[in-house]
Amino acid sequence: MALSKTISIKLPINIFNKIDDIASERKRKKTDILKEALELYIDEWSDYKIAAQRLKNPSDEILTEEEFLNDLKEDLGWKI
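Above: the chain sequence. Below: its structure as tokens.
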């Protein structure tokens, strides 16, 4: 079993209602919706930090859009 800790927060009623709506629509618990939202936020924050570090690194290669798309096509094996 994974270790876990409990956290208690107060939310504005409009956010609470939106979470409640999403949970009802997805037939999930509000806790599950909040965990998923926090995981997504943490992943995005990590990606942001990496991108910010790369922007500050003058030796990091910067690709044009065309170069990026060509590399992506090769990586994915696209035939366009």
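The chain has three helices and no strands.
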